Amino acid sequence: MRKRFTGRHMLAIMLAFFAVVVAVNFTMATLAARTFGGTVVDNSYVASQRFNGWLAEGKAQERLGWRVRVQLDDRRRIEVAVLGGEGSLAGAEVEAVARHPLGGAPDVALIFRETSAGAYVSQAALPPGRWAVNLEIRRGGREKRLIESLS
Length: 151
Fold this sequence. Notes:
This protein is an alpha+beta fold. The protein has helices at residues 7-35, 44-64, and strands spanning 67-72, 78-84, 87-88, 93-99, 108-116, 119-122, 131-139, 142-150.
């Protein structure tokens, strides 16, 4: 003998369906709130007004012709090699701030020393994990800024 499909069965199906939807939404909202480290820009309108200036700065940096290679050594210190149009870029000043992409760890300020012409190494090691390293390289009134992802 077959049971009849009643309104109670339909109510149970509807309640189960919406319970699953609410549980998934709650889980996704919780994960999103825990993993997002903050804002990209504080004021998007002001950032949009500065955008063309940032593009001009980027083009000026490209005209410098500086080529930069960034990597981690075996002790997790950052190695930066800078080449200019005339070869190794000796005598530059290199600074960086390493930021955890999800804001899970505090920022790490890094100071570099020149080990040979155009080769620079950070004095401090980078903690384990994934990092966005904001580099500034200056020499002779010229400057190049870049962001490198390291893990």
